[in-house]
Design goal:
16% strand, 47% helix, alpha+beta, single chain, elongated, 12 helices
């Protein structure tokens, strides 16, 4: 009878066994490899029961033990919500309890080698998926868009650190492409057994930088980025002896055989090749093609030609036939209006009717040229658009727009005058020869 031998040592110290038990349970809960079946069309029908069960466990364990918040806020654009923290405490608790029970049951050394091999493979492919997902979005300049005119016109001190860091990355397409390229390179290196160690070094460096940016600029992906970095270190820890010999002691180091395994049965070897090719297709090639198509469609969305992009000062603001002067202490008066690309814009006002961000009310709009009307809406958290109001428009000249209509229960007339403001950040600021520190 032929038996496949898994790489690893014969004797595991007790402390290594316990640490392995804990991290094995914790990482499996985090990466949830059983949900990867969703990459296969129709796979979501199998996993549709997992997520409600997980929500039930997180909410009830929080109510009974953790008390992060009385009512948990689910995952949204932020991965560090109260739900995310309650889930973390649940996973840590299950890992501690599970590793204790596991210790009572015990396992032979060969069984630990089998489990550690498949755990390393699962984590490795999880890192590959995220390297490509984040890398592709940066390469196609989708994750951090270039700052909009509304953002450029907002005082720097009004921005939260997270938005500042986002605009810092987005203001340089070259640097964002470079950051994404490093993530893709890490994913490619992790894909092949011979380059796994180098891939882990690149991935650890990339994810450590991402984690530090998240921590330093209060970007709400701290928990997830920390887990990606921890997973990279976990996989490198299996090679600590050879790495110390090579990098610190300047001694010869044995080749990495942690991912080298030869299955005795031919059908298993063929199945592994098919599975890897399927993974490359579903987790790399198809997402790359989808991201490329989305970027092409997004960039093809043309802004309206009726209202040119730019900053418009509010020369006249009349509400219910009363002219509200610019210097009046009226927080709901429009101070200016900015038309951005993609039929979006913002107004300098404190009116919470809009989506308020950094002292400006953001909106999206559509134009009906037949009725000379413009419809204002706002994006909800779900991504849907919510109707706000509709106004008639007319042009006094190429730089002056009149708007009139109903805003809430008030009749409004607004005279907008386009102003010309040049933002140096929109220039290509690169000089090999720089005589001064600008």
């Amino acid at each position: 009878m032929m038996i496949t031998t898994y790489p690893g040592k014969l004797n595991w110290p007790i402390w290594q066994k316990y640490l392995f038990r804990f991290f094995c349970i914790y990482f499996l809960l985090q990466i949830a490899p059983w949900t990867w079946i969703e990459y296969i069309p129709g796979g979501n029908y199998i996993t549709q029961y997992y997520y409600p069960a997980l929500d039930w466990c997180v909410n009830n364990s929080n109510n009974l033990f953790f008390h992060v918040r009385a009512e948990l806020i689910p995952m949204n654009g932020s991965g560090d919500t109260s739900y995310g923290w309650a889930q973390l405490w649940l996973y840590l608790s299950l890992s501690m309890i599970g590793s204790f029970i596991w210790s009572l049951i015990g396992k032979t050394a060969n069984q630990y080698n089998v489990l550690s091999y498949w755990l390393r493979v699962s984590i490795r492919y999880f890192l590959i998926i995220n390297c490509f997902n984040y890398g592709f979005s940066k390469i196609f300049l989708l994750q951090m868009p270039f700052p909009t005119t509304s953002q450029l016109a907002t005082p720097l001190g009004d921005f939260l650190p997270m938005r500042l860091s986002w605009m810092f990355m987005g203001s340089s397409p070259t640097y964002q492409f470079f950051a994404g390229l490093l993530e893709v390179i890490a994913g490619l290196l992790l894909l092949f057994r011979r380059t796994v160690t180098l891939g882990l070094f690149v991935a650890a460096g990339v994810f450590f930088n991402v984690m530090m940016m998240n921590m330093s600029y209060d970007i709400p992906v701290k928990l997830f980025s920390a887990n990606l970095f921890l997973m990279s270190l976990f996989l490198l820890s299996f090679e600590w002896k050879r790495l110390v010999s090579f990098f610190l002691l300047n001694q010869p180091a044995a080749a990495n055989d942690l991912y080298n395994i030869h299955f005795e049965k031919k059908w298993i070897r063929i199945a592994c090749i098919i599975l890897k090719l399927t993974f490359v297709l579903l987790a790399i090639i198809l997402p790359l093609n989808d991201t490329r198509k989305f970027a092409k469609e997004f960039n093809a969305i043309s802004s309206n030609k009726k209202f040119p992009i730019g900053i418009y000062s509010v020369k006249t603001f009349v509400r219910n036939k009363d002219t509200i002067p610019a210097f009046a202490n009226d927080t709901l008066r429009w101070q200016d209006m900015i038309i951005d690309n993609k039929n979006s814009g913002s107004i300098k006002t404190n009116d919470t009717l809009y989506r308020m961000r950094y002292g400006r009310g953001y909106f999206i709009f559509s134009i009906n040229e037949k009725s000379d009307s413009i419809t204002f809406s706002k994006k909800a958290v779900t991504g849907d658009s919510i109707f706000l109001y509709q106004m008639k428009y007319s042009f006094a000249d190429s730089n002056t727009i009149y708007l009139n209509g109903k805003l809430k229960s008030d009749s409004i007339f607004v005279a907008l005058k386009k102003t010309y403001h040049h933002f140096q950040l929109t220039e290509k600021q690169f000089h090999w020869l720089s005589e001064y520190n600008r």
